[in-house]
Amino acid sequence: MPHKRDDIFQYTSEQLRAFLDERNLRHTPERFTILSQVCRLQRFTIDELRQSLTTLTISRATIYNTLSLLVEARLVQKLEKEFGVRTAQYELVGVTESTVQIVCQRCGRVSVVKDSTISRMLADKRWANFIPDHYSLYLFGNCKVCRKKIYKKQ
Ligand SMILES: [Zn+2]
Hints:
6 helices; binds zinc ion; Arc Repressor Mutant, subunit A; single chain; alpha+beta; three-stranded mixed beta sheet; flat; three-stranded antiparallel beta sheet
């Protein structure tokens, strides 16, 4: 997966084209516009995606359908309730690779944190029957804002 934004869009567009061809689906401009926003946002909720598309006349149904297609095409992954998030969040697959993400189980906020200790530890680790490519690590807990709310209640 490339790292520059334009390259990411080019790369994912090619994958989407192949996926649509495989299923005999049309290459509509809306699908590619939505994909370009997904590439720009990288991690988003449906509302955030919809807000980023307000200047265009793309129906809510098209946004939902395209997002499901992108999930099916494995270009986007959905973080669901198994992650303890309240609002489903989506992220571009591959771009967020080798990251540590912290998930607040109360408000559902997901943030990426850089931690050189963890990345070094995983890079140095040798596996007997496995060669790792990248990792995605999720830490669950309560964010600062939610912790304050919890203490206030007590
Ligand atoms: Zn929170």
